[in-house]
User: What shape does this take?
Amino acid sequence: MMQSLLALKKYFGYDAFRPLQQEIIDDALANRDVFALLPTGGGKSLCFQLPALLRDGVTIVVSPLIALMKDQVDALRTSGIAATFLNSTLAGNEARERLRGLDRNQFRLLYVAPERLMMENFLERALNWNIAQIAIDEAHCISEWGHDFRPEYRELKKLRTHFPDVPIMALTATATERVRDDIIKQLKLRDPCCYFASFNRPNLTYRVVAKSSAYQQVLEFIRARPNESGIVYCASRKSTDALAEKLTKDGIKALPYHAGMEPRERTRNQEAFLRDDARVITATIAFGMGINKPNVRFVIHHDLPKNIEGYYQETGRAGRDGLPSECVLLFSVGDVVKQRRFIEEKSESEQRIAHEQLRTMIAYAETRHCRRATLLQYFGESWPPSVE
Assistant: This one.
């Protein structure tokens, strides 16, 4: 434990671990498979980064987002940690040089997307490396029952066959019991040590407001909080762009963020928001994973989310500094109709899951009970907590 604490202070500047981090790190160092469900802002990354510094070999980190890889690697390098990433943004000669570095055991951490990791020629090369651990971030992406299923993550179930002796750590901030079980099954985790943090975010308040004049409602809400920054989630790229433009015209500096934009523009807008050069970011669900801005004071959902997991993760961008923050959902029957239309365009098996998820989202929006209790109950947690 002392070795872990010394590394924590030396490389990350912290004097103490957050809840569950020490136990997860101890199990990782004991070469156990681990499943960890930690809240947004709960320090998931440290659970695989710190063990990578305390043993020989490279830790492979599977990450779904290119921007997230670069941000984490840059932060690690700043702390003097030998980390690298491989993705499509690299020129061919730069990627080859990094691969040669991996062949020579020069790195402690490698960040890579699932589709690259599971390429046959990549796997063959990786078999020659001294791999200490494989960490799978945003592990809910492997489950069809998860809110952000990604087919390329499904290929990760072959990892156990290729690397039978390498311990695997799966991490996520958002997973129901069904999704948790599916992650463990798909990745073939062996007798994993499982850690579940509370889903309760006591500093967040949750409100649902009947949508009438949506833009006016958003504008009045933000104007009433002149010194606060926040995120407004929209269902479409078009409405994301339009909302940012209208807010800016009305004196509120807002920038859009969605997958249809050029990567450089997305990055530029994200960084402006992180620096407080823009008060508001209007975004689709593309703006989510890995966004670490502690002073987001509000998250508004301009449209009805597709499922509770996504809603929970997006509201989790608020109040990461622990200060009171607001989560507001604008709700209308019209949004339900739109979501059902989108679902009808999916395959039959996808429709079944999507309809079930939408039903629970509607129930949350329409409930007359405590919304915090409703959210926590969905994730299998009682509120208020039972006292024994």
User: Anything to note?
Assistant: The chain has a mean pLDDT of 92.
